[in-house]
Amino acid sequence: MKVLKLTVVLLFAAALIFPALLPTTRAGDDPDEAPTTDLNRLTDDLFNGFGARGTPIDECEGEPVPNRSFEDNLFIFDELETPDDGLGPTYNAPGCGDCHQNPEVGGISQIRELRAGHLSGNGNFVNPPGGQSLIQLRAVAASIQERLDNAPQENIRAFRTTLNVIGDGFVEAISNNTIQEIRGDQPNSFRGTIINVPVVEANNELRIGRFGWKNQHASLQSFSGDAYLNEMGITNPFDGNGGRVENNSLGQSVAAFDLVADPEDDGADVEAFANFMRATRAPGRGPITNSVQRGDALFRQGNCSICHTPRIVTADTGTLINGGAFRVPAALGNKTIRPFSDFMLHDIGTGDGIVQNGGNGTRNMVRTPPLWGVRTRVELMHDGLSLTFNEAIQRHGGQATPARNFFNNLDSGDKADLINFLKSL
Ligand code: HEC
Ligand code: HEC
Is 400 close to ligand 2, i.e. is its CB under 6 Å away? Predict the structure, then answer.
């Protein structure tokens, strides 16, 4: 009893001294834990209960039907397209599942993308000819290959690694207020930057961005519409241009290489991609040893947890989000998630100079990447150029300098514990 009392007093004292260490829970909530995957394709169940599960698709027996079930949508997400389906003329890969694949559909891969641009005379970021920073690294014909030889002025270049989408339905279901509250709790020197970005399926209504390395999207449907066009070359009603404008080759028309009339998808596939992601469980933890538990405490003590927020509660079931275009279903609503991200932009000295949907001030900011599932990532940070957790930590400057210094001042046993903690995520 005494021990319990003392613990309560200590916890209370800790809460006064370290408000940022407190979990983000709204009063009156008793939220369930989100179901998690074990990140093992051989044993896993990815499905979180949103919509019908369905049965695995066998094309010999019948074609998938978009949005009929999780299994249909998983098949469509993982399907490879051809030029007859509208693939290209310039593109990056033939299917979402080609890049989002490790250790299972929706995960990551070693595929990195190239973005480029330049600064105008007054210091503003300018996209390459053609209007967007993403360079398509594949084309259906050699003559339309995008090459920076044809755009030598584009001297800002950046690589971006593929992000995990497993569990992203829970991220979409975080309310704007919750992100604002997390920001309000952050000490000034750590405080994240919020950007509001258009939700295409809600008439471009603005919502707090939380997806992509630059927080360039707020909804999974808008991200999917963008990716279908920009990664695969498939025009669709949610691609930001109403499905009317095909990709180009650094501003040159590729119409002569396009076999299919626009829009190449009527939007059903885009909804299937979004609903597949919404129906996935959250990435689950690896084994939790004593060393991992000690590392967890150090992660909080060193204030890594101020940006890599350990715990968030999603909006209540039934809340209208995405500018009114989506209602949070029971499978995603009022759930405790452990994403280890505040979903905000920060300048930790790694900025890649590219602006997407944010103002020029975001040029050198990067979204805190969620650390759930980070044990599947070998190539770390936005550019994939850090190959160990220690290397990734050493690149934390700017707003994260005190956290890096904390790590560097640990003794070797404590350092190993903190790294073991990261390896358990
Ligand atoms: C060529 C590889 C590639 C293909 C194909 C691809 N992606 Fe991605 N995906 C990426 C990369 C790289 C990022 C990080 C992009 C960035 O922010 O610069 C990403 C990010 C995402 C994100 C944001 C995840 C997050 O949590 O922030 C979503 C959602 C997504 N992709 C969905 C899709 C869908 C849907 C498709 C198919 C229409 C698709 N992707 C096709 C490589 C790919
Ligand atoms: C001020 C906010 C902030 C703090 C504090 C912070 N980080 Fe980060 N962290 C980031 C951002 C932003 C990135 C992405 C940078 C990039 O990709 O260029 C990142 C990236 C990472 C990555 C790479 C993840 C991936 O998927 O590639 C790891 C690992 C990581 N941080 C661990 C830590 C640890 C451990 C600490 C404490 C010692 C810490 N961070 C403190 C903001 C922060």
Answer: yes
